[in-house]
Write a structure and sequence with these properties.
By secondary structure, this protein is mostly helical. Helix content is 55%, strand content 0%. It is built from four helices and no strands. Helix 1 crosses helix 3 and helix 1 crosses helix 4. The chain is globular.
Length: 80
Amino acid sequence: MRSAEPPGLDLHGLTARELEVMRLVAVGNSNRDVASTLVISEHTVARHLQNIYLKLDVSSRTEASAFAYEHRLLEDRGQD
């Protein structure tokens, strides 16, 4: 399980699970690949993506990925 994100970090309303999904999508994984990696259904991945799009005010995987890169949401922030 991932460590908690540092306090004060602007996650733009994304949950920890949505961030996991976003990180996997941003590097080119399909919904099927994300589902397999996270051991969830493809339907659940699609639902997470819908929520991500709403929270980031975007309409596609590409836009969501670009937003995530621009706002540094994809960086590993694990504790040392």
